[in-house]
Specification:
Layout (H helix, E strand, L loop, with lengths): L1 H19 L4 H5 L2 H8 L2 H14 L1
């Protein structure tokens, strides 16, 4: 259960970052995406950040 909650929070934060920063790729270049993975989970990266990077 904890993993599901943590993953949901990670996805929300990833969406917030991509929505509130003009260039979503900045977080990738500065290592922000890696920080999200460490703090939350790989799922947040796979589901939210990676597709956003491919869209740009």
């Amino acid at each position: 259960m904890k993993k599901i909650i943590v993953n949901a929070i990670g996805c929300m934060i990833a969406k917030w970052i991509l929505h509130n920063f003009e260039d979503g790729l900045v977080i990738k270049r500065r290592g922000g995406a890696e920080q999200i993975i460490k703090v939350f989970s790989v799922q947040a990266y796979k589901n939210i950040i990676k597709p956003a990077i491919h869209r740009k």
